[in-house]
């Protein structure tokens, strides 16, 4: 092959350039510490790196969430333990007061201390964490109890239902509830109620039954020929019949509610059971125990969710027990005082059950928190393996490329310089 | 019978031939670094001898009968063919590289990070749905997400405009090159009337053709003319660009209607001005690369150019807005009202990456973020959690079943793979082109060593011829001045 000068120079330039390019890339790896800078350097690596980074960010968030849930739960635990202490002291005082040897004046002074304990209970019921009331369900800006031992909740017709459970994400699709609605500790009391029943029993007096999500688009309810389902209230089933086609075209879920409402209006349930639409769900509300049969036909699964609620102004059972005890002490009613012992014991069991429930939750959050830490470590490890450059290798490559570059430079200098011109006189 | 001074003529012809050869050597050396120059050599032969001399056929010296340039038309055609592929991919590589810059991943400012931050803000809100700081933070991060998408969208639209501008430039460059080549054709044709080759002009023409071949795919044919000269024409995709001394002008015609963002259709077309504005079909070269990048939307096996990425961003903005709003509308805000659109979504307007933004009513009043499932307290976070779940929702988009993260990743993967391919294609086609270019240099380039050798060779020949004249001079001196002096 014939070799010409411009060919040599051309080749030299191209090779020098190629070496420089390679060096530039290695230098970029070195200065950024990454295997790749542009997506095109490693398409698969970059897409993996994006996913891993997102997961690391999500894990960090779940960790923060878990930590927050943990603080919330420990504040709740503290409050529950304080109630336990109050009850313990109240029991001691009651035992003391129940003794026949006490005089009225002694009982009155015991009553004074019980009053203080009662105040303390209300204060505990209104415990806050970072400005949020712990036991007020979703209404964290409203205190749970008023000074007279009734539910406050901001007044009006405000309700606190059992499903006001604040759930926090601590993983994809993994949630944990952090709060306990106040009535689970404080119970519900209406004048004339038996104070000896448990907290759970006191809450059974009112129930809401909610239906499943109604998907009228895909599962229209055909009641053109009439559709009957029955509601059991007060021990006897009451049939309700609705008519019409409910498919979101002619009639929607609100029409369905109206139809059920009309049917209720014509039945003995009138005034006891009401129906409304909340969040695309049909919600039944009743002032006593009730259940729905053959509800599947209207898209309601039977007894899907039974929720208790308290309304602002309702009296707390726990406080009512204390009120009764104070009254008995002041009236010097030893029988009444003795019966308070069983009632306080009932409350003890209840609070202890809740404390252990909190313990279980704390345990679970701690486990999750540890798992998140492990996962984060693993992910970061993967991320590093995926995108971090092996510095030793990069430096070695760089040195090698530098050497090659220098060699080609000095070789080039030798090739270009001499020609026949230099040797002719 | 030989003539007395005939020998001078022989020696003189030697002098002339050597001088001519030295001229050519000097010309070669002078042009050793001239772009596109092909080395030239002199063709010489013994001149017509004299017959009839009793001593035999006597030579009359040397004559130079031609100066030719060393050039292989095969290598030229090969180079033009390879160069167009190299240039096409070179342009694509550069453009895709700048797109990678637009999306700027992996980094701390790309779409991924702003999306992470947006969902992180929602998680924080889920813990304190009543807190105004958390609410403002959600809006802030949503703004960051939308402005990042907007910025990317704007940059893509600008990139289309820039590429379009380059296309117009390239078209006028083709016109200018065509004009120069047609002009050169005229000169060459006239010059070569007698059959001699216009070497240097041809080199210039080849250089212009090289340049033309980087812009567009060309086929060059040369047909012999009547008087030893030749006609040349250049075609693009079967249609004549240059017909000997005439050329067909190209033009760009803007598509009717103003070009707007949303990237369907072309922004301008390249047409033959002389052929009723018939569209030029471009098969290679920088122009093909630019057209692919400007117009390719990835549909029907077309190239994935800027419109493809623009469409993807639009789909992202649209899908995300729709899904997010649908869920947000189901919630209840802090004031107890039904949730309104979180992202701007008017009925009359398609959402795209440019008009993607947070609803101004939401910005004005952060309490309108519908965090709750029903208005039963500030800490009801049911709807926020459902909004967060959208991140795992796979049904937002029409062209891909996957989460928003998957979608963003798919955009980047497509870009990364394409850019990677463009790089590889550039490197490969460059290697081929370089090889051919080298072969051409090997064939036509000036070798200084060779020229130096020639210089010495011709110089020596010249010296020898000159010595011949001295010798003849001495002989004549003897004949004229020394003969017949006996007895004087």
Provide a compact summary of the structure.
The complex is a heterodimer of chains A (425) and B (488). Chain A is an alpha+beta fold and 425 residues long.
Report what the structure shows.
- The complex is a heterodimer of chains A (425) and B (488).
- Chain A is an alpha+beta fold and 425 residues long.
- Chain A has ten helices and 13 strands.
- Chain A folds into three domains: 5-50 and 377-423; 54-195 and 311-352, f41 fragment of flagellin, N-terminal domain (Up-down Bundle); 207-307, Immunoglobulin-like (Sandwich).
- Chain A is elongated and about 140 Å long.
- Chain A has helices spanning 5-32, 43-98, 104-125, 183-186, 199-202, 253-265, 317-330, 334-387, 391-416, 420-423, and strands at 128-129, 132-133, 159-161, 167-171, 174-177, 207-213, 221-233, 236-246, 273-278, 281-286, 290-293, 306-307, 309-311.
- In chain A, strands 9-10-6-12 form a four-stranded antiparallel beta sheet, with helices on one face. In chain A, strands 8-7-11 form a three-stranded antiparallel beta sheet, with helices on one face.
- In chain A, helix 1 (5-32) packs antiparallel against helix 9 and helix 3 runs antiparallel to helix 7.
- Chain B has 488 residues and is an alpha+beta fold.
- Among the domains of chain B are: 6-70 and 447-481, no CATH class; 76-107 and 162-303, no CATH class.
- Chain B has helices at 6-30, 73-103, 111-127, 132-191, 199-215, 285-295, 306-330, 360-364, 382-389, 404-444, 448-482, and strands spanning 40-46, 62-69, 219-224, 230-236, 239-243, 246-247, 250-254, 268-272, 278-279.
- Chain B is rod-shaped, with a radius of gyration of 38 Å.
- The interface between A and B is large, with 59 and 61 residues.
Features:
heterodimer, A: 425 residues, alpha+beta, f41 fragment of flagellin, N-terminal domain, Immunoglobulin-like, four-stranded antiparallel beta sheet, three-stranded antiparallel beta sheet, 10 helices, 13 strands, elongated, B: 488 residues, 11 helices, rod-shaped
